[in-house]
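Meet my pick.
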Amino acid sequence: MRIGLLTEGGYPYVSGDARLWCDRLVRGLGQHDFDIYALSRSERQEDEGWIELPPQVSRVRTAPLWTADDDGVGYGRRARRRFAECYGELAAAVCAGDAAAGTGGSPGATGSAEDRSAGVADRFGNALYGLAELARDEGGLVGALRSEAAVRALESACRAPGALRAARGARVPDLLTVAAQLERALRPLSLDWYEDDGLGSVDLCHATSGGAAALPGLLARHFSGVPLLVTEYGVQLRAHYLGSREEPAAREASPAARALLAAFHGRLTAEAYRQAAVITPGNTHARRWQERCGADRAKIRTVYPGMEASRFRDVGESAESAGTVDPDTLVWVGRVEPAKDLISLLHAFAEIRKEEPKTRLRIIGAPAEGADGTTYLTHCQALAAQLFPDEADGVHAVGDNPVSFEEIGGPEVPTLAEAYAAGAVVVLSSVVEGFPISLIEAMFCGRATVSTDVGAVVEVIGGTGLVVPPRNPRALAEACVALLRDSQRRERLGAAARARALELFTVEQNITAFHGIYLDIVTRCPVRRVVVDDSGEPLPFAVPAEAHVPGRWADSGTRLVTGRPGPGWAAGPPVRGVPLGSVSDQEPVPAGEGAR
């Protein structure tokens, strides 16, 4: 089958989110063809190029979300009226409060809350697809979305009876901010990806995240009936609520503007969940978010991220009794940032040292990007120096601090696997986590772990490690001491953790799960295409039976794209591929998810 893989700020770009699991998925499903439709997030991301693509990728089409020139499309009177109606309905659905959630948006509408919510969802969806049809008919939507008519429609929706309380206080600068952000989010509506030689020709659209990545899939379903699969390893709507996925202008916006943007992303997410044939969260934590945002439980299937276990094989298969592990060393591995709560870890280590004076703590990882990560690392180093003055065995010996801060790639820790091999117990002290990648890596290495109960930690660890409440240094210290004093318990937990990780979190299980889901969706929701001749009459046998035989025998090369030209801001020369081996093997993590 032919899969349309939809990404935003991700695969195939070198610095893309989720680029590794997407690349592993595409390479692991060599029996299928993949067309990549990628929305880039920044000019820098485009300049860095793509990773090297496997032969089953038939073509790649890209468009920037970070910029768009005015399409120069001039609307006639009828088109302007269509735009005003559709955009006005979209704005009204975004601004609708609970009291105005009924049909027509009239305050005090009768009916259950579920019926009112469905009415708003229908209103938003109809308006969204109406704008898409207008963009298809007129050749673009960028200029209209930037027009005064768009701002006036937002203002009318905010002032309407029953609108969100926060929206009623929106002023002109707030409306301009919201209009600019909506124009950015709706840029995929102006693309030429939805013709019969584009997404209309695929058997299935697989959006690798919610939000903007799912929008082309919604339009392919609307125009051509192509089924949609939505995968979320970090819930995009949650990131928008936290403000970590917004543009600087949106993060600095007023409460009224932020409320409107949050409502828009909530409506768009709900529409993607409503139209998707299957939704695949990466863990129960993400699944709960999806259900709260309107996803139907019957559509949800949890598929854990696949990780490469082979790089940790040597460490995982070596026994602690072989003398390769320092029994008095605790290890923390990850990205240094406030969400990891290294402050609590250092205070817990002070309690541990009272019980086990020989214990050492190795903090291995680089600071998060930006000034905040560097500042936090400096603060942690200063606290460690204050809590643990350099110690020496005698008056003539050089003092040594029991806490060390290191980075992977240095002389002491050349590889990630050796970072986990450096200690007997791996500690995770986070206050915010999505899917704890570092915890799974420790499990692959056969290490006993002590973790805080946040995000998907309990689901991942499954009883093969100790779990304590977050922001509780005393509980963290007691759990670490218990494992430091019991080597046999460490070995049992480490072996059980490794077996669990190999069963649930490998690349192989991830690929097998998606292969089964692809077949199930195409079986239940086949795309029915009718081929007609020049007179409009159906052509019998236009699609031969051989077209359904697995393989690429009938289409061995990259297909050329024909049809109406797309907007100029979405055109550009191809980017030279970069071998994946030359790129860091650590996944970029959606901000706010705290995956490592």
About this structure: Residues 99-109, 553-564, 581-595 have pLDDT under 50 and may be disordered. The first strand starts at residue 2 and ends at 8. The two ends are 35 Å apart (CA to CA). DSSP finds 22 helices and 14 strands in the chain.
